[in-house]
Amino acid sequence: MPGPVRIGVISDTHGLLRPQAAHALRGVDGIVHAGDIGSAGILLALERIAPVAAIRGNNDRAAWAARIPDQRVVEYGGKRIYLLHDRNDLPFHPSPEGCDVIVTGHSHKPAMERRNGVLYLNPGSAGPRRFRLPVTVALLSIGVTLDAHIIELLV
C-alpha cells in the first residue's frame, strides 16, 4: 500500500524563496502556492522541487501573473483543495461544495482549523518577514487521514 501524498503549502513569498523554504518542501509530491508569489522565478524554482499549482495574490499584478488564476480547485490523493489568496473573499459559506481543504494566504499569519469537516489552512508567509510574524510553510499529508502541520523556517 503506497504511503500518504505529501503536499507542500506556501504563500506570500513576495519574490523571495528562502533556502529554508526550499529545504522544507523537498520530497513533497506537489506544491500549492496561495498567492503573492512576487515573480515568475519563484514558480520556476518551486517547479524544480515538485509540480506546482498556484493562484495569483493581490500583489501579483505584473504581466507574468496574468495567466495565473485568482482561485482554483486542485485534487491530490482523492481530496479536493480550494486555493484562494484572501479568506475574506471566500465566495461560499461555509465552504465550496465538496472541498476537503481550503488553502489561503494574505494575512501572513499561519493558521489551521477544522470546521464542518473542512480543513482551513493558511501556511503563513515564507517571504520577507512582516512585523513580528513567523516565517513559515505548511505540509499537508493526504492518506487514510488528512493532516497538516506548520513549519517555522526561522527560529
Tell me about this structure.
With 155 residues, the protein is mainly β. It has a single domain (5-152), classed as 4-Layer Sandwich (Purple Acid Phosphatase, chain A, domain 2). 10% of the residues lie in helices and 34% in strands. It is built from 2 helices and 10 strands. The protein has helices at residues 19-25, 40-47, and strands spanning 5-10, 30-33, 52-54, 71-76, 79-84, 101-103, 111-115, 118-122, 136-142, 146-152. The strands form 2 sheets. It has a 5-stranded mixed sheet, with helices on one face. It has a 5-stranded mixed sheet with strand order 4-5-6-8-7, with no helix packed on it. A hairpin with a 2-residue loop joins β4 and β5 (79-84). The N and C termini lie far apart (36 Å). The model has no long low-confidence stretch (mean pLDDT 94).
What's the CATH H-level superfamily name?
Metallo-dependent phosphatases
Share of residues in strands: 25-35%
Helical coverage, percent range: under 10%
Annotation field: number of helices: 2
Kindly, what is the distance between the CA atoms of the first and last residues, rounded to a whole number of angstroms?
Answer: 36 Å
CATH architecture type: 4-Layer Sandwich
CATH top level class name: Alpha Beta
Radius of gyration: 14 Å
The number of E-state strands comes to 10
Mean pLDDT metric: 94
- Category by helix and strand content: mainly beta
Q: Which regions have little confidence, pLDDT < 50, spanning 5+ residues?
A: none
